[in-house]
Specification:
Helices cover 16% and strands 37% of the residues. The protein is of the alpha+beta class and 278 residues long. Pfam families: PAP_fibrillin.
Amino acid sequence: MASVLQSSLPLCSHHASPAKTPTISALGAFHFPKTHHFSTIHRGSNCNFKTGFICQSSSDEVTFIQPPEAAKLKDDLIGSLKIKLLSAVSGLNRGLAASEDDLQKAEAAAKELESAGGPVNLSDDLDKLQGRWKLIYSSAFSSRTLGGSRPGPPTGRLLPITLGQVFQRIDVFSKDFDNIVELKLGAPWPLPPLEVTATLAHKFEVIGTCRIKIMFEKTTVKTTGNLSQLPPLDIPRIPDALRPPSNTGTGEFEVTYLDSDTRITRGDRDELRVFVIS
């Protein structure tokens, strides 16, 4: 989004002495030398300078808006950083196969993209959360457990559980926030493995500008594959009185980058997650 630089500059009706040309950084921000003067700016007018920026004036205040060329520079930079991040996490089986070196590369690439994108404000961009998002990387999966940064069954050949795709389905109107996990459960030979989809239903609320709190409601397990005709099974939320202190049924995370097809979040246990729209 084009940034706006506002400055109360003296208006003049004469040509000023020659001065340095303002420059535009890679992110589209303007840098005006202190000695720079502008020529013939009239109150209440719109103007388009040949130097490559647009100004709108009202009274004694002049607003400078970055031109399409500067916005394109930022878009190109963000596009290249997104490719860099996706390349860093590709082939890691959503983080389950990540080494310490892989974790550091993914972290560095995510920070670059977060910095280029700037702060997320969900007050303005809440609609961008809408949709079904596919998890392509979680730093917590490097712990080799299906619970990520929380307790969960370990992954490995000795446990007949294979993690499939993981999705988040978000509805900004109903405040529904569902974590959807595809699992394959091993069965004794000659029976085929059991394929199921577990949907962990939550409600969510936005806290501040970019933090999201989710409240667990229930889990629904639905068989797929050869047994897809079986009805789904709902597992209700455990009453708070019976819930262990370590499992409050709530969680929080920050959205640190968000656009129409890519989202980065950082969890309350330092978990980095990368999603793409699906």
